[in-house]
């Protein structure tokens, strides 16, 4: 009781510290991230894989409209978890920054540069009053100087680089799975399989439906973003024995 | 009691997160949507149907002035549910954006583009202080590159694409009815009938009165918005056995 | 007790939603409207009638200065109920908009156009912080393309079109009387009589005093606003047996 | 107790409505008016009379510096009651508006026009945040097109026209006296006498001291503001038997 | 208890009214004035006298630096009581206004004009949010058109003209002394003596020390401000039997 | 208890008065000054002495970086006590003002002029909202027209001139020591000794370490600021028998 | 209990003083610094050493992306502890200031100058409302005029110069270790060893892993920043017997 009352005293203000030096609003924004379905990023020698659980609420909803994987530039993809409308703001910001870089310097923006421009933007919403923090985490993956790279942004505005990571629901379980199974030298295809296996492992369902998934890759050679179609996903799921058996109602999706 | 007191601590601020990562003001705005009468959107191969329950409070009120179905552009209609004055703001915003697109690019705005411009606008009201969120949901339907499309916007600023959906009162019941009866290949006329049946099914009354309804279609071939007159509605209701039998006082409406 | 405490938690903020999706400040502004004396609007084939109860507090007060009926443009009148100073702001706004329309387009502003410009203005005061909503409702009546039309604005900024309506005190009683007695085909003179009868019916006094009334008409043919003099009103009241018998102190008012 | 606690919840905010539709800050500003000494305005066929109780706190204070009656323009006087410093702001505003009118249109400003410009200014302080309402009421009297007119402004920003009125302390008593004694056809001199009798009647003292009074007239013929000297007042008081008998300490005032 | 809790509810806000129409912040600022040592102003036919109790806290403090009497212009002096730093702001304001008047009109500013410019400035800090009222009262004395005049400003921004007055500590006692002893026809020297006697009368000490006093005069003939030296003061005190007998430690002050 | 609760009600606001006319935030800022180590200023016929206790927290900290004595201009030094970062803001402000004076008028700024410019700046932070007061006091010493002068600024923005004073910790003890020992005619060297003796007297330690001290003088003849080196201080301390005997670890400091 | 409640009353406001003259928000920001892992700065005759504990949360995280040591300019390095996103803001600020100095003056910025520019920036966030303080401490080390120098900044904006210091977790233990072992004349290599020994001493683990460390030096002769590679660190750790024996999983990191 005592602790709770004390906590309430601090979390009303947007940008102030608690006595133990924490920013509650930022921590609550992290809870908003956990409420979102999982997204995964994996880096292999051949490129970057982004995968996301994007099950829709109703068979009448177009699965494409559940936005979890976004193309930010030719060579950069972004996966998100958390508050969808907030994610859109940051994706738009990322796209503008990417275009500005091409216009100003005549070359694609670096993955690390883009990430840090975004995290600096996010940090402002945790220090300056008059707005709340962004309730979303991003995985920013792409090719920089021929090298695949993956970064994470969180609501505090801290950037981290990963070999493989997950954000959103079941983060701990999926990370443990990735830590056990990850091999830096695997192929892009094996990376996709690992991402899907990790999602399936953390899911309470048996198998995955292609319409409830989003998968994109950025190939290190071509440096090009590719979003997988439902057909491609179905084939991959089948190949790896991950296809849900009771999937019947949504298979004829265009 | 405990839980209620805790909740009160968070919902006073417009733009802050609760400890479990939710934005109460956005959730309360969703309640404002539920307080509004139902609107329905249905996509068929032949076009888009928008339908709304717009019963007026008094026989002296002009039913036309109950605004639920709006023409946003030649090829786009919008149905709303929730706070009427808020809806007007977003409709005006949509109309301006549509006109700007025609002026700037010489072509009609895309349905998805328009939707996302609106949801980005809505999101700002959930993150920046000094204003409350919009207490309204919209169904934005129209023809894009010859294809009928329907999108939903909610108070958080999240866009979703649907084959068929409802917003406002009785949302769950009407969605269930639509999930059971929806057929993507049906004709525009059958789509209107389905929408009206869904409204009637969720209503406590027996049958529907044409003056208490709003129905508009956007034909995929002509790409033109058409709002149905009371006479047209009466004919359709009669054809499908949905006409209220006790409708007597408002039938002579111009 | 519980409920009251909970309510207090929400109604302090100007622009926030309560957990059940209501805007308390707007609802309290509606109470301010109810505290005002009644105004009535009636539409007939021959034109528009605006009538208002404008009894003054003292025989020394000039009844003309109790502002309830206002001329907004040659062809538009406005009746108000609620906070007088707020009404003046909206009337001024209406007059400016009307003049701007004449200057810009060389023609009188439409009744619906004017109404919606006003309601959009009102809505801003319910969503953006730093100000309270307007505590007033308006009846905006006039002639548009030869047709008499009457609209209502309320503190939420919602526009509605009516055949006949009342705002302010005794709204429910007067509306019921109007619903029973209203006939769309009656003459302008009969419309005035109906409005006065409705006011008298809802009043606790026996009969009406001409100095305590405001009546204006906008004739569909001449499209001209006319405010009735005390003498004209006295004659009408006498003709319809509505003249207060104990009216003695204020009859010689200039 | 209950009621009081509830009231406190609403009156802290400057510009918000209470659940019963009242603006407490405006009502408290009216209390500030009642705390001020009385001012009276009377309209006769011959002109306008403004009179005020301006007793000073100490014989060492210059009675002229107790500001209750102000000249706003050649043809306009203003009497105030309430917060003195606030009154000065509105008087300055009135003088500027009067001068602007002369410069812009080459003619004296109308009494009604000036009043409504002032009340619109006052209303802003009751709706927009960041300031409190004006704690003062004004009687604005003058000659317009040869006709004497008197208006009242209150803290809500509502304008009313009167034949005779009082503001400030003992308002109810003085109004009752005026209602009984007022005669529209009386001379300017009789009007002064009536105002002074009304002040004396409401006062607990026996008789009035000329140095504790302010009286100004605006003559309908000359359209000129005239502030009465102590000597003039003494003579009038004597003539009407209103002179205080114990007046000895301040009679040699310059 | 009840009363106190109620009071707390209102005095937190800077610019709002209490239910009985008072502005607590202004009243508390008046308390800040009372916490300051006394200042006195006296008007005689020969000119204006300003006097102040300016005892310093320590013999090491330079008595000249205790600012109570200020020269605002050649012909105007100002005595203050209350918050010293606030006084400095208003004195600077007064000096600027005086210089502006000389530059703009080529003549010295009037005492009344200057006072009202200052009180209008003070009033703003009692109505507009974002700042607190000034915690200081001023006595503004000088020669206008050959006539000595003295005005008072208080934290509400109200101007009053006096023959003689005091502000700050012991105000009531000193005023009573002045009311008894004041004679409009006395000489400037007698006015100084009266001011010092009044200070000594209200003081708990026996006699006055010249270093603990500030005295300035503005002569009606020369229209020039003169601040008295410690030596001049010592002589005057001795002449009038007001010199403290135990004054030994500070007499060698330069 | 009662008193404490009442106090809490007022000290939350930055710029408001308490019922007894005090500004709590300014008083709390004075507490911040008391939390700082002591600084002393002494004026002699030969010039100004500034001295400060600047013991560092660790032998690894550079004693020079403990900022207590600052050169503001060639002829002006400033000693501070209280919040270090706030002091830096005011020192920077003082330096800018000094340079501006040289540029604008071609001469060194006066000590009194500089002090009052600073106190006016400080006062703004006690009246205008949106910032807290400065938590620092300053001793501003220098030569003006050949005369040594010393001023104090406090968090309220009040300027005082002194012959000798101390600010910060042990203020009362040190002032008492200075009052007893101060002699206006002593030499600059004796003034330094007096300052160090006063610091030693108030300290709980036996003797002083030169690295824990800051001493600067401004010579009345040369009008030049001189900051004493550790070696100079060691010699002075030894001469006056004030050198700490156990000083061993920091003596070889460069 | 009492104390806690009292504390809560003050720490909600960003920029206000508590009754005992403390700024709680600044003190809580210091807690945020203590929550960060340790960073160490050591100054030797040969140059500056910066070292930091930068263990990552997961073997999949790239250790390089844990930002603790930053190059600010050719001759300046910065080590941070605390809120990572806040540190980035200050590092960016430092880099901009360094570049501006080179552009404006054609020479590298001084270490002290840069530090004080940063602390002045930090101070603003503790005095002006609308933002929280920075939750980070910095060690700013570099070569100025051939001399190695190290400064500390804390959340209050106070600058201190050190011979050797630590910030972040275990500050007291590491400082004690440094005070015992520090020798100003040691070589750069010995300084690195001392920093690592201090980190190991304060750590609960046995030995250090090179991938969990950050070490940079700025050589006094070359005046150039050098960040040590994992290989270089491994060699140093082995030489000094500080290499963790169970380090196996991350050794092949590129």
Core attributes:
Glutamine Phosphoribosylpyrophosphate, subunit 1, domain 1, alpha+beta, homoheptamer, 254 residues, 5-stranded antiparallel β-sheet
Question: How many structural units, i.e. domains of chain A?
Answer: 1
- The average pLDDT value of chain A, as a whole number, equals 90
Order of helices and strands of chain A: HHEEEEHHEEEEHHEEH
- Major sheet of chain A: order of its strands? 8-1-2-9-10
> In CATH terms, what is the fold-level topology of chain A?
Glutamine Phosphoribosylpyrophosphate, subunit 1, domain 1
Write down the Rg of chain A. 19 Å
Helix and strand composition category of chain A:
alpha+beta
Low-confidence spans of chain A: pLDDT under 50, at least 5 residues? 1-13, 247-254
Relevant CATH superfamily of chain A: Aminohydrolase, N-terminal nucleophile (Ntn) domain
CATH class of chain A: Alpha Beta
Strand content range of chain A: 15-25%
Could you state the oligomeric state of the chains shown? homoheptamer
Alpha plus pi helix count of chain A: 7
- End-to-end CA span of chain A: 54 Å
Q: What profile does the largest beta sheet of chain A have? A: 5 strands, antiparallel
Largest interface: D-E, 41 and 39 residues
Number of strands of chain A: 10
Percentage of helical residues of chain A?
A: 25-40%
> Which CATH architecture of chain A is right?
4-Layer Sandwich
């Amino acid at each position: 009781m005592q602790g709770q009352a004390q906590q309430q005293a601090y979390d009303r203000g947007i940008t102030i510290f608690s006595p133990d030096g924490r920013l509650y609003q930022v921590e609550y924004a992290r809870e908003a991230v956990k409420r979102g379905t999982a997204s995964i990023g994996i880096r292999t020698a051949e490129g970057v894989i982004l995968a996301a659980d994007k099950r829709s609420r109703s068979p009448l909803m177009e699965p494409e409209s559940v936005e979890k994987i976004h193309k930010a530039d030719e060579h950069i993809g972004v996966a998100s978890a958390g508050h969808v409308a907030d994610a859109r703001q940051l994706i738009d910001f990322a796209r503008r920054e990417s275009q500005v870089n091409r216009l100003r310097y005549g070359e694609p923006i670096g993955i690390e540069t883009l990430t840090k421009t975004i995290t600096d933007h996010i940090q402002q919403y945790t220090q300056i009053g008059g707005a709340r923090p962004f309730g979303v985490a991003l995985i920013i993956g792409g090719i920089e100087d021929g090298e695949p790279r993956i970064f994470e942004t969180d609501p505090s505005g801290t950037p981290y680089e990963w070999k493989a990571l997950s954000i959103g629901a079941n983060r701990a379980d999926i990370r443990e799975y990735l830590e056990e199974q990850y091999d830096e030298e695997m192929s892009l295809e094996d990376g996709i399989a690992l991402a899907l296996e990790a999602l399936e492992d953390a899911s309470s369902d048996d198998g995955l439906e292609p319409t409830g998934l989003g998968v994109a890759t950025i190939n290190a050679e071509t440096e090009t973003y590719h979003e997988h179609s439902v057909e491609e996903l179905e084939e991959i799921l089948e190949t790896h024995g991950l296809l849900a058996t009771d999937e019947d109602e949504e298979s004829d999706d265009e």
